Structures are given as structure tokens and as C-alpha cells.
Amino acid sequence: MSARVYILASDRNGTLYIGVTSDLPRRVFEHQNGLIGGFTKTYDVKRLVYAEEHERIDEAIAREKQLKNWKRAWKIDLIENSNPDWRDLSETLLF
């Protein structure tokens, strides 16, 4: 089963959230519609700005933990290398 690590942002250079899921469209929909309580709902973190796919869930979880330990500047560089305009990538997902 494949899995994805993703980063949501409140805005360009705003609050970041890193998560992992096996169903990215469903998970992003839940975040964007306030169906998940907690951090993303409290801080209005809804914009999908980065995602990467892994073949196995354990690999994705390890990568998620790695990214969560990164400095903020490294996370911003990661986002800007693949999405320099901080576009909401959820527009390309099929819901």
C-alpha cells in the first residue's frame, strides 16, 4: 500500500502542518472542511503545498518524523523547490 507525506500551510510562509496518509484526497478534504479537530482546525491550516509518495506506510511515517524534526527554513526550502508560488496543490487532487 502506498502512502504520502504532506505539508499543509495556512498561507505563504505561514503555519505548517506535516502529516501522513494512505488517502491524500480524503485527508485533505477532511482538513479543508474542518472535519478534523486540533491543530489544523485551530490554526486554519488548509493549503496543500507539498506531498511525496512512498511505497510503504512505514517509510512514509519515518519520513514524516524526519521532516517534523527539520528546522523551519529547511521545510520552507523543500516546499519552495517544488512549489515556489505556494499554490494549493489540492486543486489537482480528485475528491
Question: What is this structure, in a nutshell?
Answer:
By secondary structure, this protein is of the alpha+beta class. Helices cover 38% and strands 22% of the residues.
Q: Which CATH-level-2 architecture? A: 3-Layer(aba) Sandwich
The DSSP helix count reads: 4
The total tally of domains equals 1
Cα shape = globular
Characterize the biggest β-sheet.
3 strands, antiparallel
Distance between the termini: 19 Å
Instruction: Kindly report the name of the CATH homologous superfamily.
Output: GIY-YIG endonuclease
Order of helices and strands: EEHHEHH
Kindly name the structural category: alpha+beta
Structure summary, number of beta strands: 3
What's the Cα radius of gyration?
A: 12 Å
CATH class: Alpha Beta
Q: What name is given to the CATH topology?
A: GIY-YIG endonuclease
Strand content: 15-25%
Q: Strands across the major sheet, in which order?
A: 2-1-3
Low-pLDDT stretches are none
What can you tell me about this protein's structure?
With 95 residues, the protein is α+β, with helices and mostly antiparallel strands. It has one domain: GIY-YIG endonuclease. 38% of the residues lie in helices and 22% in strands. The chain has 4 helices and 3 strands. The chain has helices at 24-32, 39-42, 57-68, 72-82; strands at residues 3-9, 16-21, 47-54. The protein has a 3-stranded antiparallel beta sheet with strand order 2-1-3, with helices on both faces. The model has no long low-confidence stretch (mean pLDDT 95).
